[in-house]
Fold each of these.
Amino acid sequence: MPAIQSQAAEEVHPDVALVARAKQGDTAAFEQLVRQYERQIFRVAQHITQNREDAEDITQDAFFKAYEKLDQFQGNSKFSTWLVRIAVNESLMRLRKRKTSRTVSMDEDVQTEDGSIPRDFAEWRPNPEQLYGQSELGEILRKTIQGLPPGFRTVFTLRDVENLSTEETAEALGLSVPAVKSRLLRARLQLRERLSRYFRQTNGEAKP
Amino acid sequence: MTCTEFLSKLDDYFDCKVDADVLAEVRAHVKKCSHCEVVLDTTRKTISIYRENEVYEFPEELRERLHAAIMKKCSKVKV
């Protein structure tokens, strides 16, 4: 039975055992999962909501919901992807409540091509890290990603900051793979264009 | 390869998911198009700068407080 043999040989993710133990009521196992992913969930929530208090609430709510719904987790996807999906939904719900942005739905197709067509062709020299101090650089990165539509910055965060695969990102966001790819390209190009204002080669001129 | 075609291959290029012939076309295009060469380089830097810099701090004090709050909430639920 070669099929069964190859299945057994497949590497089992360590979370599978922790989730199974947590389902049996082992709190220590669930606590281990919390420890593993609390930083990631907080970061995802803060990237989407751009608000630290919201991110704190979302982190708590996401783990609490995951704990409550643990029985519903079938193991078809990674536990971390399932958890991220809960956190993304909570984050988008917060944004809708705050109504600070027009585009808060992942299903909403962002029609505009504005900002996704490269216009700035200056090189970034010297490297941004040489041009700015750590805190100044952090401020620029925060300000720049804040300006992206939530749908774009969510895809960028999951793919490029959290390093999820395209398929995992699609699963966590309830989007198709082509939709993730299209948003990711536009997010990357828009960020590049905006960052270029700070990082472009100025030939000795003052920084903006 | 045109500039538009180059842009459409950019994500797959970063993910190393382009076939050898497309890869050769991308390389040939950036060799002769200085604008796309810059776009390729600065988009790569955009990704790496966000990946390598912690944009939002997550201090230990906050981690401990959140962790305790999560576990306290969960302790009240019977799985």
Amino acid sequence: MADAAAVTAAVDAPRRRLASAAVYLRTMLVFVLLWWALAAWTANPALLPTPRAVAEALVELIGDREVFMHAGISLGRMLIALVVACALAVPLGLLMGTSPLLDAIIDPTVEMLRPISGIAWIPLALFIFGIGNALPLFIMTYAAFFPILLGTIAGVRQVDRRLVDAARTMGVPQRTILTRVVVPAALPALLVALRLGVASAWTAVVAAELIGAPSGLGYAVEWYRELLMTPQVMVFIGVIGLLGYACDRAVREVAARYTPWAAETRAMA
Amino acid sequence: MSAQASAVPDDIKLRLVNAGKRFGGSAGTQTIAVRDFTLDVRRGEFLVIVGPSGCGKTTVLNLLAGLERATEGSVTIDGRPIDAPGPDRGVMFQDYALFPWQTVWGNVGFGLAHGPAGAGLDAAARERRVRDCVELVGLAGAEAKYPHQLSGGMRQRVALARLMANEPDVLLMDEPLAALDAQTRMIMQDELLRIWGQDRPAAQRRTVVFITHAIDEAVFLADRVAVMTTHPGRLKAVVDIPLSRPRGDATRGHPQFQALSQHIWSLIRDEAQRAAVT
Amino acid sequence: MATSNPRTPLPSRIVMAAIDMSVSGDLPLGIATSLGRVFAGFAFAAAIAVPLGLAMGAARAVERNVDPLIETFRPIAAIAILPLAILWLGTGTAAAVLIVAYAAFFPIVVNTLAGAKRIPPTLLRAAATMGLSRFTTIRTIIVPGALPAIGVGLRIGMGVAWTAIVAAELAVGAKAGGGGSGGIGQMMFIFYAYSIELNRIIVCMIAVGLVALLLDRGIRTGMRLLMPWGVA
């Protein structure tokens, strides 16, 4: 009986995807048409370029590789920031989640710093680092750190106590319980935390590059704005959005592949 | 009766003497889950504890498992005090507590891979034991599946296999069949008795302490039934179940079965009513 | 020695700077300007996002058609839109309000939609068996049922709005070279670029954090007043 339902679902799935893709295209088409109409009506290419102008700018920027260069720089920064943030936040989160004492000590500092968003650090960071590569890296790492830390702590706390109990009744030593039970059990929640960290870091990259970096997508957007080349501005904004979506998707795919059992994973899909 | 831990008769496996468990902080805010609980569990017997909801049955099990420590009295196995969990007392939890990231194979073999039960076994021996346990519970062929792909009855079998793989002396089960529908429940009751070894001579059976709130289940499975009161939990009575083994469908219709069920219900009745309105 | 330089940040100097800025009115004015923009933008966003989210939750057709637009623009952070906003509206309050509204819109609509969809179908069926009209159902079941999720959306939206305004004012301050429209973000930039007052920058940072906390508490209290029945 279960197999029949699975077969039906397998046959339906591509059909459903096709249908939703069609709706997506239809809505975007309507959007583009409205845009085109509005652009024709305002007739001010610096204010609102036509969809065609933007498309042309896109082709040009791809052709001379500018898009890839800036995108690569921004992505590279985010990757480094994420690695550093995870290396700091995950172990700390595991410790704070499992040890009430440690949590009590560190938590006040965390709660004080958390509301001060990464963006608010920019002037101080500008002073310390100056304009350059270090500034976006610092801001992004800071921005990613808190969601990952808090998500890790929450993930550890929500681990089912019965799983730990089951391992204890099998005589498994405490250290092994931490690595072989708590971490795998918390993994789905950790990946959710990672998603939030990625989103936070990617937003911060734009702000940081807009203000204090000589390269990257945020910088490119500002550069073209100052030149009043609006089609290019829009292209880069679109690329920022696209890459943000792609990174989020990537984490979701990792979660689906490596934590297929988790309700969290299914909810994310 | 004083708790002489060493002078325990040979046929007693587990012993609780005046055991009590208190939770909470200072005197005013404490909850007494279990009080003055004295019970002997015989070697190889299937003992079932019944009582209304919230009467402390799970706490008694946790004391035997070593997941909780008694605040009064003593809890011993073979005369030795119980103060920590271990593979000699395997526990089956109400929601199975299967590791969702492990397959059936991985779950069943977990205690052997990471706990003392696997020490001294090489990889081949471990593999053999896991395979035997999987077959014993009737899940051969499903080894590569994950818990979220299994039905409730199948998950319960995995939990049982995981338990058996560590070759425990004692099996402690906390309402393991509660989450199953009525039909699966009856099938699993038969399976449980088969796996426990009701077809085999008594000397080869393991000691089982089983918790349930379903009286017919208790009478069907047990050699003896311990009836608990509620708030705080105390032992009210122990009822012998002389129904012959092996037991099956015929047992359920037997007049003696009905009589015993009635008797136990009459013992619990007012406790249950009190629990229902508090 | 580090302490001999009067510009080095020290807790005592930070406190002095904080008092000075408060008494002179600079700090309250900056915060008030920024807050005003946040509230305006937030109100716009909520006025559109909550009804839209409920409509999408109530009618699958609406959801299917609007969702692609939301999902396409959601990954584009508000700050990335800032240059466009400046292009269209200049470096004044209008652009700031637009950015705030854009930023707050997405969390509010996404959470409202999720809340509306999460209403247990059995409740809706009960409403149908009682013969309630579509509109009454929305008013008496869907809205109260979605309220907790709407609250979450508003809280997140407010947090994002506040972050966005600080970022926007910072960026505008950087580009407009100090002349501009005030607000705490711009103050921070001025202290960095023109007077290099680290202590004052830190005062602003702390103020940003405190306001964020207060806004969050405020919304939580507001939601609790709206939902005396508690959350199940």
